[in-house]
Design goal:
Helix content is about 25%, strand content about 35%. It is an alpha+beta fold and about 375 residues long. Helix 2 runs parallel beside helix 4. It is elongated.
Length: about 375
């Protein structure tokens, strides 16, 4: 096992008209021994460039890459003891599964008995034993992906690099392979950086999740910490399905307590006004009469039992515009005046469409963000 440290990495490219594209900006990450770090973000945010820098396929403009305390910036890719699994399986079509998995070892002049032993062990681990004499064209998509993973496993590297390995698979197969990668990683305990644009995948496979946007790391933490305590507005809006509801408004003192009032609209009846939970007051006292962003997850907005009565603790009346029935839960797309948000609760979806429903915000689960910096206040 090995620890990996990426420190102040920078990488720029020239655009088609000579513009500078900052793919990676002062990126610092540490992958502990045996840890799987999931690097997630939207397309074009710099995830794959970061992986290629670690593999030695790109040269950084600045910063260092270290494995076990040794800086490897000037070490050739083949000598870094790193194995990479690409989005494209990149299998040799004329070679059998066995030969595909053993090819890297053959190039490194590993003795044949050792090659056979390693490939046999990896094939058993990946349930590929019966496929060793087949060509890639005779395999399913999931089996081809397992061969690509097996080719990396037999190397016994210090670091695994996965570049969106499941994005070409259909949904059921992707879920199956995700489980298999988690189980495999627990067996091997090799430090791993796993790149994906799918935040659900990142949450499922990662010991920790690093959220990236425009070349900058936004938040690094354990999956549930990233979900329940997002560091800023980008993380709040990116992590979660559906994403966190974000409402702009003002913190105001009313009736001896602080409340949140949504941004003014032409119709005062469409304004959302709710009391702020007392535990949050000390952190929000400095934002009185200032704009903030209120964040609430869909599961923290539920159907209310009583109609609104105008008080700050009352329900809010909202119109159901759309319902997404997902089996175990329903996602209700709601509108209160100009404000749109998503809630989650049980019930017959068809009976709600177009109806006005009282809903209640669970303000104990609320988040507040500074709209100027984007950073979380509480």
């Amino acid at each position: 096992m090995a620890s990996v440290v990426l420190e102040n990495l920078r990488k720029t490219f020239k655009g088609p008209k000579g513009a500078t594209i900052r793919a990676v900006q002062d990126l610092s990450l540490t992958v502990e021994e045996g840890e799987l770090l999931a690097l997630v973000g939207p397309s074009g945010c710099g995830k794959t460039t970061t992986l290629r820098l670690a593999a030695g396929l790109e040269e950084p403009d600045g910063g260092t890459i270290s494995i076990d305390g040794q800086v490897i910036n000037n070490v050739a890719p083949k000598d870094r003891d790193v194995a990479m699994v690409f989005q494209n399986h990149a299998l040799y079509p004329h070679m059998t599964v066995f030969d595909n998995m053993a090819f890297g070892l053959k190039l490194r002049k590993v003795p044949k008995p050792e090659r056979v032993r390693r490939v046999t062990e990896a094939a058993a681990m990946l349930e590929l034993t019966s496929c060793l004499e087949r060509l890639p064209k005779a395999l399913s998509g999931g089996q081809r992906q397992r061969v690509a993973v097996g080719r990396a496993i037999v190397r016994r590297p210090k670091l695994f690099l996965f570049d969106e390995p499941l994005s070409n698979l259909d949904a059921p197969l992707r879920a199956q392979m995700r489980r298999e990668i988690v189980q495999l990683r627990r067996q091997l305990r090799v430090s791993t950086i796993y790149v994906t644009h799918d935040q659900a995948e990142a949450m499922a496979v990662g010991d920790r999740v690093a959220v990236m946007n425009e070349g900058v790391i936004q938040h690094v933490a354990r999956p549930l910490d990233v979900y329940h305590h997002p560091a800023n507005l980008f993380v709040a809006g990116f992590i979660g399905s559906p994403p966190m509801n974000l409402l702009h408004g003002v913190v105001r003192p009313e009736g001896g307590r602080l409340c949140f009032r949504s941004r003014q609209t032409r119709d005062p009846r469409a304004e959302i006004a709710v009391s702020i939970d007392g535990i949050m007051v000390p952190k929000l006292i400095g934002f009185v009469d200032k704009e903030v962003v209120l964040g609430l997850r869909a599961e923290d907005i539920g159907a209310a039992n009583a109609e609104p009565d105008g008080s700050l603790d009352s329900a809010i009346k909202a119109t159901v515009r759309l319902v997404e029935p997902l089996g175990s839960e329903n996602h209700f797309h709601l509108a209160a005046g100009a404000h749109a948000f998503i809630a989650s609760w049980q019930g017959d979806p068809a009976s709600f469409i177009g109806a006005d429903r009282p809903v209640r915000f669970d303000m104990k689960k609320a988040h507040f963000f500074d709209p100027d910096t984007g950073k979380a206040i509480v």
